[in-house]
Specification:
Blueprint (H helix, E strand, L loop, with lengths): L12 H9 L4 H11 L2 E2 H8 L4 H13 L3 E6 L5 E6 L1 H18 L11 H5 L5
Antiparallel strand pairs: 1-3, 2-3
Helix pairs in contact: 2-5
Length: about 120
């Protein structure tokens, strides 16, 4: 199992926030779940488009460990697992929408490559 060589050195709340919901995939997964609700792994993968299984799996584990996403296993055959946002995860959505609104003032959108959720976001402009 991978172990970090250095201990985390978070010195302010902003660094914690950026670590928890920052990065390339964390915010995207949060937006997908905010838009779609409960999703299975394969549905998240389809919504995300170009994410690898290894990256998606690792990112979901990180989001679960930070209590942003809940993983629900059902005792069925075949096994079924669904992912959804926790209350903490839902509390991040307005922050991400604010970032989208701010970014919309400066970022020139490539609408051909925008995520489906970004195309639907009312806070982009």
């Amino acid at each position: 199992m991978y172990q970090k060589k250095l201990e985390e050195d978070i010195r302010c709340p902003l660094e914690y926030g950026l670590q928890v919901f920052g990065g390339k995939w964390n915010s995207r997964i949060i937006c997908v779940l905010a838009n779609k609700g409960n999703l299975r792994y394969s549905q998240i993968r389809t919504e995300m488009g170009n994410i690898t299984d290894a990256v998606l799996s690792t990112t979901l584990k990180d989001l679960i460990s930070n209590d942003l996403i809940h993983r629900q296993s059902y005792d069925e055959i075949p096994p079924r697992v669904e992912y959804s946002l926790t209350d903490k995860g839902l509390s991040v959505v307005p922050i991400l929408q604010s970032i989208c609104q701010w970014s919309g003032q400066f970022y020139k959108e490539d609408s051909d490559n925008a995520m489906i959720q970004c195309k639907k976001c009312d806070y982009r402009r």
